[in-house]
Amino acid sequence: MTAQPRIREPAIAGWFYPANPDELRATVSRLLDAVPVESGAAPPKALIAPHAGYPYSGPVAASAYARIRPLAGRIRRV
After folding, report:
1. Structural contact between residues 34 and 62, judged by C-beta atoms closer than 8 angstroms
2. pLDDT per residue over 26-51, tens digit each?
């Protein structure tokens, strides 16, 4: 018997990130798009990114995740 995965409801939506899914998607895209792309840079083997809430650490976190954005379809495990 396979257990169903538990999905935790967002506890702080609207405080540290937008509660509206479309606004959240736009915010993440805006943060990632603001990071200059390094052409030819090797992908990182590991990332350390803050998670204090978008108003506080969004741009810094985006600078980390933008490095792996081109690999989104190939990353299998986080």
Report:
1. yes
2. 999 999 999 998 888 888 888 899 98
